[in-house]
Amino acid sequence: MIVIAVVIGAILVASNIVTFNFDKNIPDGTDLIAYAGRTTLNLLNTERYDGSVFSFASASIFRVIHGASKDYGNILGTVSGLETVSCTGVMTAADGGILYVVVDYGTNTTSSATAGQGCPLIDYSASIKGYVQSITGWDGDDDGFDEELITLNLNSVDKPTGYETRNIDVPLVWNTYDSTLALTALTQATGLSNSAFSYGTSTGYASSFEEGDMAKIAKIQVTLNSTSYLYADNSTLFLTHVKIGQYTFTGAQFGTFDTSTYRWEITFGDQSNLQGGKEIFYAKNAGTLWCPWELKTYSNVGHASYTIIVTLSVYYYTPASGISSAVTSACTINTSA
Ligand SMILES: [Ca+2]
Fold first, then answer.
1. Are 192 and 291 in contact (CB under 8 A)?
2. Which of 119, 201, 296, 306 has its C-alpha lying 20 to 30 A from 69's C-alpha?
3. How far is the CA of 143 from the centre of ligand 1 (A)?
4. Contacts of 280 by beta carbon, 8 Å cutoff, 6+ apart
5. Which helix (H) or strand (E) holds 232?
């Protein structure tokens, strides 16, 4: 019976006796709930480390843009304030209940009197909640380095009526950015065999950093001295891994040894976007050994006495302008040990 009904239905449709009219203009609810009206947006800024109020040196780091057009110049209103950063403007239905907050680190280089500390970095995981829908990179001012783009969805807020102004509070969490990352001298890799493949491990620690601060690693290089690179090239010396804090990056992740620069290299992000960086954070009471480093190799260079110098270089993102110069520390693989 069902089969017969389906067959008859197909015949009716095919012969245009019965037609289906799918109205693409049926409201899907979006138009009905879109938030609009006169709005004061308050960004409540706190510090990740201790939950204290974060005060910016200048509100110019922030730019609030209408959802109707993600254009750097399409601002909601003048941004002011240092601890609670605010602006007021009128959102229209065209905004669809969306505001973009652009964080342009390049407009503000410091928020603290402490040497080495620069503009704070937003904490993605702690800040994406409530009205914050997402935080992504966006080069709003076309200078080749991404700003942070915070997308706010305000459609759960009651629309203001008449001359009413709706106050909307958005908590954001920040990390204190530290530009003083350094490495202690790596230990020499000793105890290696000079006639068989064996592992060599060198260790060190991140130093100079202040408790509660963070940085984002952009790339790591492991470079051999020029008289030793052939051992990597002829497969008698391999990079096993580099460890930094909670991360382990394997030799395979570093990829092929580059015989022109004598190095292995691993990059995080596209070198123009802070979000790709590997975060290291000096947590409260973590102690001075909070971030250990380890460089491990596997080698058999076939010499009774030979010293290979390995230099570990670390680059991190500087929020305002791109990539730092290298922080380096060298160690040796000594086959006579
Ligand atoms: Ca930019």
1. no
2. 119
3. 5
4. 181, 206, 214, 215, 216, 217, 244, 245, 291
5. helix 229-233
Q: Give the pLDDT band of residue 107 (cuts 50, 70, 90).
A: low
19 is a domain residue: no
User: How do residues 226-278 score in pLDDT, each as one tens digit?
Assistant: 988 889 988 899 999 999 999 999 999 999 999 999 999 999 988 888 888 99
Distance CA 263, CA 255 (A): 10
Integer Cα distance of 115 and 112 in angstroms:
8
Query: Domain of 300: which CATH number?
Result: 2.60.40
Indicate the residue type of 147.
E
Classify residue 258 by its DSSP letter: B
> 236 CA to middle of ligand 1, Å?
44
Q: Give yes or no: residues 142 and 272 share one domain.
A: no
Collect residues with CB below 5 Å from ion ligand 1.
139, 141, 143, 145, 147
Q: Decide: helix, strand or coil at residue 195.
A: coil
Tell me: do 141 and 235 sit in the same domain: no
Number of structural domains (the chain) is: 2
Higher-scoring residue by pLDDT: 109, 186 = 186
Query: Residue 174 corresponds to which tokens in the numbers above?
Result: 């920040």
- Looking at the chain, which runs of residues are DSSP E strands? 37-47, 62-66, 84-91, 98-103, 117-122, 132-138, 147-153, 166-178, 182-183, 198-207, 213-224, 237-244, 247-250, 263-267, 278-281, 292-299, 307-318, 322-323, 327-334
Between residues 269 and 98, the one the model is more confident about: 98
| CA 271 – ligand 1 centroid, Å | 13
Reported as a pLDDT band with limits 50, 70 and 90, residue 101 is: very high
From ligand 1's centre to the CA of 210, what distance in Å? 28
